[in-house]
Description:
It is a single chain. The protein is mainly alpha-helical. It folds into 2 domains: 1-30; 32-77. It has helices at 4-27, 32-54, 56-72. The longest helix has 24 residues, at 4-27. It is rod-shaped and about 90 Å long. The chain starts with a helix and ends in a 5-residue tail after the last helix. 0% of the residues are buried. The model has no long low-confidence stretch (mean pLDDT 80).
Amino acid sequence: MESINQLTYRLSAKAATGIARLRALMAEESGQGTTEYAILVGILVVIAIVAITAFRGKVQELWDAITNGFDGLQVES
């Protein structure tokens, strides 16, 4: 059976190894760019939703004009 000192030493060594790995992961910056792009895309989506909501009437007029233009086309056979 291990003594308390041996057990304490093994646990300390494992804790030190875990802390070293955690520090290495925190220093790594490869995921940082992905996060920045995700935030940017999120902001752009919010801006698009706000713009569409603010200009709802104009967007509806434009959509109606497009659909009327397609309806006015005749297919020749």
